[in-house]
Input
Amino acid sequence: MNFVLEAKNINKHFRKPKDFHVLKNVSFGVKVGEFASIMGKSGSGKSTLLYILSTMDTDYTGELFLNNELVTGKTHQQLSRIRNKNIGFVFQFHYLLSEFSVLENVMLPAKKLGEKSNQEIERDAHQKLEMLHIGHLAHQRASRISGGEKQRVAIARALINDPTILMGDEPTGNLDSHNSENVFNIFKNLKEQQGLSLLVVTHDEDFAKRTDRIIQMEDGIILNP
Ligand SMILES: Nc1ncnc2c1ncn2[C@@H]1O[C@H](COP(=O)(O)OP(=O)(O)OP(=O)(O)O)[C@@H](O)[C@H]1O
Output
């Protein structure tokens, strides 16, 4: 099986205020080109799992593979680079820098990676914005655009380094139904037209049931790995 992301026997404990076994031997994979969603009650461990899968949290046992490469045990510096190159992340809140232009916000992760000239990065950023139908906003300040537009800018920023997987932690959680539908359609197009793999934590059943697969979490366990 060709996995973009594979978790093997992931266990995590929170030690304070008292020991809490939050993820219990979680094993599953996301196939290349798959659009998967994670659902489960509040407190079932979805966000905790996603932070491990996105390599932001390294305090766990088990093994995590990204593009068939073992990433568990790498240094924070190595992980920062692996993450920036391979994983796009969209949160419930957009985390745009409000004083910067839309274009500058989208360019930032590519500048950090430092593999392309500013001119190439700017061209790529324009292309991502056009793809998401917000090219006309490039020179607007991020603080001046609507909530739905901000989330699309956040998606453009997540795509700037051409990641192999796009992850979302309730990416439609702050949006009305019209903008949620927009985000779903963007994700679906990315899968269908570019073969991108996606993994999205959501409470939105209407969103989840239209993905390729719903991964159900309950009390730190995946019910259908
Ligand atoms: N830093 C922490 N220390 C101790 N316990 C924590 C910590 N972070 C989360 N928890 C607990 O771990 C459990 C899982 O939390 P997590 O945020 O992963 O759940 P979730 O399924 O994403 O919930 P929601 O749908 O509400 O976002 C919860 O019981 C939560 O209270």
Summary: The longest strand covers residues 3-14. The chain is about 35% helix and 25% strand. The chain has a mean pLDDT of 96. The two ends are 14 Å apart (CA to CA).
